[in-house]
């Protein structure tokens, strides 16, 4: 038995993967988890709209939702801690209308 079925067997309902710059992207791991699980909701802990366009993020989330049979969620939109390291200095924070 792999780790993810064990997580479900132990009662975990949500499984998240950390997604920030200078780390591996969350999406490949989440797609693998989608194939290995049956009921847990899956998603990235956070995604950065300053480094990935919202349309790209929507497409990645839609792919995960399809691969998981409708179990995907988007954890949060977050600025992250590394933008200045790649020369990005957002003028405004992320806002909800």
Radius of gyration: 15 Å
The tally of beta strands, per DSSP, is 2
**Major sheet summary line:** 2 strands, parallel
Stretches where pLDDT is under 50 for at least 5 consecutive residues are none
What is the typical, i.e. mean, pLDDT? 86
Notes on the structure:
The chain has helices at residues 3-9, 26-36, 54-67; strands spanning 14-17, 41-44. The protein is of the alpha+beta class and 97 residues long. It has a domain at 20-77. A two-stranded parallel sheet has the order 1-2. Strand 1, helix 2 (26-36) and strand 2 form a beta-alpha-beta unit. Helix 2 (26-36) runs parallel beside helix 3 (54-67). It is elongated and about 45 Å long.
Short structural description:
With 97 residues, this protein is α+β, with helices and mostly antiparallel strands. It has helices at residues 3-9, 26-36, 54-67, and strands at residues 14-17, 41-44.
Quick tags:
2 strands; alpha+beta; 3 helices
Write the layout of secondary structure elements.
Blueprint: H1 3-9, E1 14-17, H2 26-36, E2 41-44, H3 54-67
Parallel strand pairs: 1-2
Helix pairs in contact: 2-3
